[in-house]
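Researcher: Here's my situation. A collaborator sent me these components and asked whether they could plausibly form a single complex. I don't have experimental data yet, so a predicted model of the whole assembly would be a useful starting point for our discussion.
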Amino acid sequence: MRRVCMVFAFTLVLCWPAFVRAESAGQSGGELHFCLRGEPKTFNPLLVEEDASETIRYLTGGVLIRLNRQTQALEPGLAISWKVSDDGRKISFRLRSGLHFSDGTPFTSEDVAYTIKALMDPQLHSPTGDSFRSSDGQVAIQTPSSDTIVATFPAPVAGLERLFDQVAILSAHSPKKEMAVLGPFYVADYAPGSYVLLRRNVNYWKKDKEGKPLPYLDSIRLDIQRNRDIELLRFRRGEIHLINTLDAEYFDRLQKESPAAAHDAGPGLDSEQLWFNQVPAAPLSENKKTWFHSTEFRKAISMAINRSDLSRIVFSGHAQPAFGPVSPANHFWFNSSLPAQKYDSAEALRLLARAGFRLVGETLRDASGNRVEFTVITNSGNKSREQMVTMIQQDLSQIGIKVNLVTLDFPSLIERITRTYDYEACLLGLVNTDLDPNSQMNVWLSSAENHQWNPKQSKPATAWEAELDRLMQAQSSASTDKKRKLDWDKVQQIVADQQPFIYLVNKDAMSAISPAVVGSSPSVLDPHVFWNAEVLRLGPELALGAQK
Amino acid sequence: MNALQKVAASVLLVIFVLMVLATFLLPAPFARQFRDIPNAGPSKAHPLGTDALGRDSLSRLLYGTRVSLLLAPAAALLSTLIAALLGSVAGLLGGWFERIVLAATDLSLALPWLFLLLVVRAMLPLDVPPLVSVLIAFLMMGLLGWQASVRVICAAARGVRDSDFLLLARSTGCAPVRLLWRHVAPNLRPLFYAKFFISIPLFILTEANLSILGLGVMEPMPSWGTLMRGFEDFSALSANPWRLVPLVLLVIVVTCFQLVLPPQEVTQ
Amino acid sequence: MIETRKSTKLFQLGLRRLLLLLCLGLAGALVGATLVRFAPGYGVSERELDPRWRAESVEALRQKQALHQGLPSFYFHFLSALAHGDLGESDSLKRPVRELLRQRLPVTANSVVRGLGVAWLAAALLASFGLAFRGWLFQASTTAFNSLLLSLPSAVVAMLAVHLRTPVFCAIAVVVFPRLYSYIRNLLVRSYGQPHVLAARARGLGSRAILFRHVLPLAAPPLLALLGVSFAVSFGAAIPIEALCDSPGLGQLAWQAALSRDLPLIVNVTLVVSLVMLAANSLADLAGRTFSGSMQ
């Protein structure tokens, strides 16, 4: 009898690996490896300000409502359902029950209450928190049960439900504080200056269609790599599996070698724009101030710039001409009834003639006989922007305008555009992570900081800026998205008529994904590649270059 | 002058002549963008191809020669003069003057001069003419580039101070300036030459880096430094080897300078 | 008795020297602080351009960034903190400077020392070959090779190092070598042209004796000075190379600190760098003087 048992045990031991392997085949997803472009400044999801921390928050944070980056629709996250009141001030959530944080602490509505209160603390000063603060005042929170919560904000918050995609829920009671998370991964190791290691959160609530627990991946390793050339090199060598955002130049380099790895998801939300300094107190000559304040001048410049050449040459076709603040990729909010602006130098000259400018030989002169010449500043180290201004130099020289380019380091540039206003024109890009244009509120309000061409006005300097203010206030308190869209359509119309920002291009959302990564579906919204990190897997196919 | 020196001198002369005649030789205006043919290869119309914006590379190279070949040696000369003067006088005089000069040199090696350059840029008006901006950039380089060689020159000058022929010259009542000019400088000349040769390519490359701060050459004006940017993309370089011509030209020019002005003749 | 007096005198001299070095280093750090404070772009942050911030948050951000305590007060606090060994906290990285320096200094010291070693060895070798082979071909080709290395932008050298997977010190060696070689070659040739060397040659002395007994002693003080200065040159080369190769050293730290106008970090890095350079140069100076003194 003993011998039979021993034989049986022996066989079992021999076959044990087979059992284990079969079980873990579905679960062992390997370690995803990619790079952060800077040092993460914080692990507290409420204080996230820059890209690197944002990446970690996305991968570790559990949110009530998740925006599906592919379908652009809102999906239930930690909240099974939610309801926003008609006045846009109150939102009530029905939460999933029986969930735990990564360290085992139970998840209840108390944690949500704690998070929202911390978010609305006026001392917090974070972009996430500020998005909710449409006005001063306290938020009132009720937790009728452990899985329901009602939050009432002091004033209507536009796009309230969408904003919760950014709010990762903190634990009210866990001794680990912000390191206890509800997302698919948790921070297991951090070597400053070197890497961040995320491991699978076994307490993650989501399961796949077959009921298997997510995420598939065992861990994610994020190396801190500032240099983009080296990042691309490592991708080609197979050391990293993906590059979330790829510039046009690197995309072309990669596409020549491994076309399967280079992905272009189409026009994105990011734009590049040029604007003129319209600050009345700026240290500019009077005639230049007159030019920049003239709507015809700005419209003529916009008309004289060949945007399709910019997209074709500077971005190798990986960009689309842009004419307004909302990208056409933003289907709902884009005002499609606006006529597309044409590239027409002759029409531009006619417009300028109406404003008192005249072409004398090869040079354009204003009404007082001064030669029309101005300097565009942009940040150094960005080849695309330098190339765009160089092309604009040639475009505008055809209507007799001389454009100079000065590239400055970023801090000096920011000082000029936000403090001293000692500049004439500036070319910068706007990174838009949010579909909802309400996040750009501070750009369009004349009293706000980011109203770049003339910030912090005590009262609107022009009639159209006053109208913009009125529209912004209206849309922020409107009750439905449809009503808000009407206001935003009008905003886009005003921008097209007045050209305070001369929009140039919308860049494509490009990324690099190794064939070893299974389940990826690159999207136009950020994060382009790892938005569905919980279903990504490393397949049997060898990573790029690993065969070499 | 031996054969090698003659060859080097004639090469420099040819390049100099090309530079002067550049405006007549340009196949196309250096700033004109032929937007249908960006990144084109060599052809009859564009012997060195076109750059990323479709501008003729040969024209840009010839025009850039003016900026780099005139101003870099001038700035190198300025910094060599400063280093030579400070180093030799400090080495000869010795005592507290030498100690002050050396301490100041050591300190200035460690200071972040980047910020001084930023201040200079901030003080200039935004619409400063490109030529003035370039001149100022090279002037700054000349004024800030002398530190590394002062110690070497000083140590060598100290050796000369204690040498016999100098004692002889001093004992015969030679005036200090004449001493410096006729006796010490020729002896230290090889070191001055070394400093000069090293500075030329260094300044050409630094000028390209200065444009990051807003100084130096601004688009659309080319210079060798800016033409050599973008060499990090090795795959593109190997596909378009004609893009290496500015580097080759720079190496030729620096080599010829070194061969034309050799250190003392060595007899075997 | 005389020995002890001499040794105490030496000790006092050494101590005074050390004190002077320290004062100079601190002076360098404070001048660096002034430069940073008054350069454009101090106290501004890229985050101000984020449209999600409200006006109060931007105001709070600006308050945090700016040095509203004034420069003399900053000097005072810095010096008094330094006396306690506290180097302050980095604004951009939010970590104590001391910890950052402790992590990164060994990396840079390693690359710099190894890079310098390789560069000196290569330069000395090539220079001695140059003495042996006097033909025009050798001269032209070494000059051309030297010029090639001088003309390579550091970005290219760094990328080559990354492509070929060579360690960072190789890139530093490639950048420093041509400068060393130019000086060494010219120094040796200058020494060979000296009258007493010619006289020794005329007397029929062997080439090895000439090299070691006449040429090298004459060239030694400037060579030692070059050795001291080469530390400064290689650290200067290390800054862009480490930044480009993403090597976690002091050079990369200095680069990032400069870009983000991180005052505490820049001041401390300047202090460390000036102390190292002053020390290296003083030692080289001392060695040079002792050498020439002993020759006489």
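Model: Some features of this prediction you could bring to your collaborator: The mean pLDDT of chain C is 85. The CA atoms of residues 29 and 59 of chain C lie 30 Å apart.
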